[in-house]
From TrEMBL:
The keyword Chaperone applies. It holds the Pfam family Cpn10. This is 20 kDa chaperonin, chloroplastic. SMART domains: Cpn10. Belongs to the GroES chaperonin family. GO terms for molecular function: ATP binding; metal ion binding; protein folding chaperone; protein-folding chaperone binding; unfolded protein binding. The lineage of its organism: Eukaryota, Viridiplantae, Streptophyta, Embryophyta, Tracheophyta. Keywords: Chaperone. The keyword RNA-binding does not apply. CDD domains: cpn10. One of its GO terms (cellular component) is chloroplast. Gene3D superfamilies: GroES chaperonin.
Amino acid sequence: MASSQFGAAVSLHLGSKSFLGSQLISSRTSALPPRTKPLCSVSVRAATALAPSFTTLKPLGDRVLVKIQSVEKKSAGGILLPTTAQSKPQGGEVVAVGDGRTFGDKKVALSVQTGKNIVYSKYAGTEVEFNGINHVLLKEDDIVGFLETEDIKDLQPLNDRVLIEVAEAEDKSVGGVLLTESAKEKPVVGTVRAVGPGALGEDGVRKPLELVTGSTVMYSKYAGSDFKSKDSIQYVVLKAPDVLAVLS
C-alpha cells in the first residue's frame, strides 16, 4: 500500500482577515526570560499528499475539488514576504464536482460547475496535494461565491449569501472625542450590493431571498467573512439569516 506524506500549512492568528491579505505589525519588546511562552499562537494544519499512483479524485455528494490559487509571495510594494506573512489563499478554480444533494428520492445538482473561479471560507475544507498541486475539498456550502475578476466587489454570492458594502465607522464618540482606529466600533450597517439565488429547502426547492440590492441593512456584529476591495472599501459576505433588519 502506498504511504501518505504530510505537509503543513501554517497560519498566524492575527485578528482581522482580508481578501487582499493580512498585514503583520511588529513591535519592539524587551528581552524575554528563558522558557517564556510565545506572544502569538501558531496553528499547523496538515495537508495530505496523495501518492502519484492515484490519477483521479472524484468528490462525493455536495463536495467540490478546488485548485487553490497561488500564494502572493511579495507585497504590493514588491517586498518579499516571509512564509508566516503570506496570506492563506481563499480562492481557486473548481476542477471537479460531486453528483449533488439528495432530498428524499430527489437528486439536485450542485450550483457550481467546473472551470468556475470561487471564493471560499478561510479555514473550510480539507487540503490535499494531488498531482503535485495544492487543492482543497469543500462542501458547496463552504463556497462564498463566484469571482471572475480580482476585485471582491464583483463577487456573485452563492445560495443564501449576501455581499454587503460596510458603512464607515464613526470617527467621533457621542461626546465628540476623535476615535482611534482601535477604538472605533465594528460597523453593523451596510448596503446590499449582491444577493445569492437562495438556499435549498428540505424539499429540494430553492427559495429566493427577500433582500434586494441597494437596501440598507443591519446585520450581526461578528457574522460572515470580511474583505477589502482594490479601492480599499470594506465588504462583508454573510448568510441571509445573519441580516437582522432593513433600514430606511
